[in-house]
Write a structure and sequence with these properties.
- The strands form two sheets. This protein has a nine-stranded mixed sheet, with helices on both faces. Strands 10-12-11 form a three-stranded antiparallel sheet.
- A hairpin with a 2-residue loop joins strand 11 and strand 12.
- By secondary structure, it is of the alpha/beta class.
- Helix 1 packs across helix 6.
- It has 17 helices and twelve strands.
- The protein starts with a helix and ends in a 9-residue tail after the last strand.
């Protein structure tokens, strides 16, 4: 689809994304079937019946009488809100690869290619002084290193993460559970304006949409999806931050946790993540090293593997592994080793900095690992 065709189709992406029961999967199916969403919007009931259930068709028919496809775009233009569809080259690359990526994004501010190097920071709304301090510090250092900080503009850890990124003179993106013109919580209006000026406010909800309970967990998939990794700072046992972690895990993204007070209920969820095998970091430098991102002036030890060559057995282990965690049983079967042999080899590879224990007997190559054949 050419740029001109994409622009002509844009109003219909916006219109269909606002129809009940027409989520990302159905929008994509309509596009693939009809070749454009303009054709899908004008399709007959019989034509739509080839790919949609009767209730979805009824919802589209009702929407045609109340939605003027060009009207939302015109309103966005008046408000200074950009509209990105999944077909736009500017659509975030990381987000495009998640299951059921939002078909339409509304953006106040700007998204740039630099935002592909991003970390999400999430946590409790009732942050302790420790949580506020560490969220600000890590976000500030990440931003100073050129990493975009993604969060949800909520009270507590989210707000301090955005604030820290701004203090680091870096970029930050706030993913909202309302329209990008409806700031929630209201006391973050000033912060939201600064975020828009140094990054972006992003939502898959049309302008004017009020914050609603179900919107918050739904938007967390976008927070995780826009980042290489999610960092949790203070999360209670029942927490939106843990929902974000679940999305990150489903999307194959890394999860990190800052250790917190073991006697505090506000940290019960994040401490459980540690018990379940999430990687622990205590600074932005830790996270940058683990992700293999250059930026901060980190005193990095010379890689151990440069001075300790691999044995043939270790190469066999390396050859069957990837950066996605794999269970010990699968590794030893693929490498044709016994449990004791495989465990010993994995321990040595950990010491050499080539393999990391992802918890629950799962192992993965570290991000700095070079080819085992070299």
């Amino acid at each position: 689809m050419s740029d001109n065709e994409a622009d002509l189709d844009r109003p219909y992406w916006v219109a269909l994304s606002q129809v009940d029961r027409i989520g990302p999967v159905r929008v994509r199916r309509l596009f693939e079937h009809f070749g454009s969403l303009e054709k899908a919007w004008g399709a007959s009931r019989a034509q739509l019946g080839c790919i949609l259930d009767s209730r979805s068709i009824e919802n589209i028919e009702r929407a045609r009488s109340r939605i003027e496809p060009a009207a939302t775009l015109e309103r966005c233009s008046r408000l200074g809100i950009a509209v990105l569809t999944a077909m736009d080259p500017a659509y975030p690359r990381l987000l495009a690869h998640i299951p059921a990526a939002p078909p339409v994004l509304y953006v106040r501010g700007s998204l740039t290619q630099a935002d592909e190097c991003a970390v999400a920071i999430v946590g409790t709304r009732r942050a302790s002084s420790y949580g506020r301090e560490i969220a600000t510090e890590i976000a500030r250092d990440l931003a100073a290193a050129g990493v975009t900080v993604v969060s949800g503009l909520a009270r507590g850890i989210d707000g301090f993460a955005h604030q820290g990124a701004l203090e680091g003179n870096g970029r930050t993106v706030a993913v909202m559970a309302s329209g990008v013109d409806v700031i929630y919580p209201p006391e973050h209006r000033g912060l939201a304006e600064r975020v828009a000026g140094n990054g972006a406010l992003v939502s898959d909800y049309a302008p004017g949409t009020k914050p609603d309970g179900p919107n918050f967990p739904a938007r967390n998939r976008i927070i995780a999806g826009m980042a290489l990794a999610t960092l949790v700072i203070e999360a209670p046992a029942r927490s939106g931050a843990l929902i974000t972690v679940d999305f990150a895990a489903d999307q194959g993204r890394d999860v990190f946790v800052v250790p917190a007070n073991v006697t505090s209920s506000a940290s019960a969820g994040s401490n459980k993540l540690i018990r379940d095998g999430a990687r622990v970091i205590t600074s932005a430098a830790d996270l940058l090293v683990d992700l293999g991102i250059d930026g901060l002036n980190v005193d990095r030890p010379e890689p151990v593997q440069d001075s300790l060559p691999l044995t043939d057995e270790e190469r066999r282990i390396m050859a069957v592994m990837s950066r996605q965690p794999v269970h010990l049983d699968e590794i030893i079967v693929a490498a044709n080793m016994t449990v004791s042999e495989g465990s010993a080899m994995l321990t040595m590879l950990e010491l050499k900095g080539l393999v990391q224990n992802a918890g629950s007997h799962h192992y993965a190559l570290t991000r700095s690992t070079r080819s085992a054949s070299g």
